[in-house]
Amino acid sequence: MNIKKDLETFDEIFTALRQDEIENPVSKVFEAQTLFETLDLSLRDDPISDDTFKAILKELVLKTPKTSSNRFFNQLFGGRQSRAVLGDLLAVVMNTSMYTYKVGGAQIGVEKEIIKQIISKIGYGEGSGGTFPTGGSLSNFMAMIMARDHFNADIKHKGMQQTLIAYTSTESHYSIDKNAAFAGIGRDNIRYIRTNFRGEMQVEALDKQIKEDLSKGLQPFFVNATAGTTVLGSTDPLNEIAAVCQQYKLWFHVDAALGGAVMFSEKYKYLLKGSEYSDSFAFNAHKMIGVPLSCSMIVVQDKRKLYQSFSNEADYLYQGDDDDLNLGKMSLQCGRRNDALKFWTLWKSIGTKGLEQIVDHQFELANKAHDYVSSHPDYIVYSHPPSISICFNYKNIDPKLLCAALLEEQEIMVGYGALADTTFVRLIAVNSNNSVEEFLEFFNILENFVERKGDELVK
Predict the structure, then answer these.
(1) CA-to-CA distance for 185 and 298, rounded, in angstroms?
(2) What does pTM read for this prediction?
């Protein structure tokens, strides 16, 4: 094996990818059933030549969906921040694991500095802490486990003896439901609180549901609020929810996997007002900040809760140094990759002001798009600023059919969402590499496509 030669191969393939993103921003779609016939993904006993290997690898890369092109609007991430990519590549080469200071060394300091800054931005006080799980779903899971153990410390030893009740909005992330199953709470013990027309949790309904559960002898323990819902990009009324949690002594978690990035913006940070009263807060830098997947954090008001729920002694592993530097003692997993460095290299190079510009630019893109669809008679709009989600329907065309056709014809990759019984196109302004002109070109492409296809898009 020759690492220098392989890095040259990487450079060659990446250069081809960058060019292909310009010439063919949406990869050709092929049916899942034909995947193994379309690409040579087979693994065999004998090695292959370097040229054959390079050709197969290049074809695989170029036929993978292009999540960094200016035509990708399908997910809550997109684009490419080069300084963050640099950090990720270095993390791969160093291959450190972030569970002990002995192994992680200086990289432990990188993670701790980021956590310290996030804690400060949210407004947590002394004694706070945090860690990097492998994704937003795992961050939410850790919050639920800590809430469970905070309610009853014996549960982690003796198992569930009570019926615990958790609360979240109907527009919250799907991980809350899964996590209730994982944590032994049970899916049936999640209470889904209705939202208003903006997709925000109705606090009166939350209070009423808690009272009803208490009257039945059940045990409320956890409230999940969302800052940046997956469909409309809405933020729940955090201050009001915090007051309810304080009244009933419930763990207050803020899932800000998407919307947490506004902490860096002087203009939009008001959206997180009330987070300082939460017990835990989850944030994904791989969403609005554009750091490569995955880069997820959870921070807590009282870092002792992390140790109480996740610490476990292991003499073969923890061999010296303070627990505060042995990050595995506050982590769900043992060995884990260095997800902090790629965020640090970006943040270090462009500063907090640079992160603010990234966030503010996405809102600028979304606001311009909202203005366009709101003033155009052929669009019906369902989302509301400030949000990086622009949700609409065009000329009463079935959004599922429209999104599928746009992808099939390699025009745009965009998805759809729903609120109550209404389904609509969901355009996400999350790629800060797009200019306003490039982003608004979405609508020109969409309208011309509908004009060309006409009757094919009508059932």
Answers:
(1) 21
(2) 0.95
